[in-house]
Amino acid sequence: MFIKQKSQEISLALVKVSVYIRRADFRQRLERLAFQLLEDTASRDFERALSTTDIIWALVTLGKTIYEIEPINAKILLQELDSLNAAIRQSAGLEGLPDLGTVFSKLPVVVEKEAISGNKSDVDSGNDDICLRVGMDNGNGNGNNNGINGTIRQSAIIEKIRQSGKIALKDILAAFPDVSERTLRYDLQKLCNQAILERIGNGGPASFYVFRS
């Protein structure tokens, strides 16, 4: 059960991270391996699953080095991959006495920090805002069914814009009622800074966002 849950968490995180990868070939490889990991663990092909985790580990490390994956995301992914790898080895009888520390699914403890003032650096905002937890809190810090955090929340915003072509700020606020307006504005600004979105308007409720050409 742990292996299945952990592989699902890692695969979801890989797909979400891939949204922001600029190099198409690298993005496609990571997405393909995310699904491959699910297939390997679901079929209990542990030998192949170990090989898949090793490849993902290497690609994530490379992604961090070439600035395609945020360092904090890479750190979380590598930790989770190590945990899954150890659990697979134990389940397959490849190690001796079990280490109970690797048996229980642990959510990485990462605190999302909103911009406190206009002086917060772009580097800080880029690293602090992204969190890959699958059991998530919302932008107000209160966990519930709408707890979409960091990368996953921004991915949801991108998907809404992809479906409609453009979306007004007021509609984004309505779509995430349990997330503060400040947090959503911060998400939108981050996506604009990454040249993914473009804001049309003065930033008020009537402003809307489109994909940057």
Automatic annotation (TrEMBL):
One family name in Pfam for this protein: HTH_DeoR
Spell out the molecular function terms from Gene Ontology. Answer: DNA-binding transcription factor activity
Top-level lineage group = Bacteria
Q: Domain HTH deoR-type: where?
A: 153-207
UniProt keywords, alphabetically: Transcription, Transcription regulation
Q: What is this protein called?
A: HTH deoR-type domain-containing protein
Species for this entry: Candidatus Harrisonbacteria bacterium RIFCSPLOWO2_01_FULL_44_18
